[in-house]
C-alpha cells in the first residue's frame, strides 16, 4: 500500500520528505550555506522549507519563507527565490549582513 493511501481519522495529513539540498551563497549568507528540505503531499504537490530566515529591521523577528511547486526542482527554485527576496526586502544592507541578522531553525526541527 502506498503512503498516499493511508487514512486515519485522527491524522489530517502526511508529507513525505523527498529531498534535501545544501545551497551555498557567499553574497547573502554569512556562513555561506543553508539547507532546503522538500516534502511531497498526498496530492503530489511539493513544498520546500528553508532552514534560515532573515530578521526584519522593524522588530528583528525572522521572516521564514518557503516555496511550492509541481516538482522538486520547482519547489527548490521558488524557495531560494523567496529567501533572496526576503533578504533584499529586509531593510538591511545586504553588503554588511552578519550572523545576528539571521535566525536558524533548530537542527532537530529540520
Question: Would you summarize the structure shown here?
Answer:
By secondary structure, this protein is α+β, with helices and mostly antiparallel strands. The chain is built from one helix and seven strands; from the N terminus they run ββββββαβ. The protein has one helix at residues 72-88, and strands at 16-24, 33-40, 46-50, 52-55, 62-63, 66-69, 102-104.
Question: What would your notes on this structure say?
Answer:
The structure is a single chain. By secondary structure, this protein is α+β, with helices and mostly antiparallel strands. It contains one helix and seven strands, in the order E-E-E-E-E-E-H-E. A hairpin with an 8-residue loop joins strand 1 (16-24) and strand 2. 18% of the residues are buried.
How is the topology of this model organized?
Blueprint (H helix, E strand, L loop, with lengths): L15 E9 L8 E8 L5 E5 L1 E4 L6 E2 L2 E4 L2 H17 L13 E3 L6
Antiparallel strand pairs: 1-2, 2-3, 3-6, 4-5, 4-7
Radius of gyration: 16 Å
Number of helices: 1
- Report the portion of residues in β strands: 25-35%
Which residue ranges are poorly predicted, with pLDDT under 50 across at least 5 consecutive positions?
Answer: none
Q: Report the biggest beta sheet as strand number plus sense, adding barrel if it closes.
A: 4 strands, antiparallel
Q: Which range best describes the helical content: under 10%, 10-25%, 25-40%, 40-55%, 55-70% or over 70%?
A: 10-25%
Amino acid at each position: 500500500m502506498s503512503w498516499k493511501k493511508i487514512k486515519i481519522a485522527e491524522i489530517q495529513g502526511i508529507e513525505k520528505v523527498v529531498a534535501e539540498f545544501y545551497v551555498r551563497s557567499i553574497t547573502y549568507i554569512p556562513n555561506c550555506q543553508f539547507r532546503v528540505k522538500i516534502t511531497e503531499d498526498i496530492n503530489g504537490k511539493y513544498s520546500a522549507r528553508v532552514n534560515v530566515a532573515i530578521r526584519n529591521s522593524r522588530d528583528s523577528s525572522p521572516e521564514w519563507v518557503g516555496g511550492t511547486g509541481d516538482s522538486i526542482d520547482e519547489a527548490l527554485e521558488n524557495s531560494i527565490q523567496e529567501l533572496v527576496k526576503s533578504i533584499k526586502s529586509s531593510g538591511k544592507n545586504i553588503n554588511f549582513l552578519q550572523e545576528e541578522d539571521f535566525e536558524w531553525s533548530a537542527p532537530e526541527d529540520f
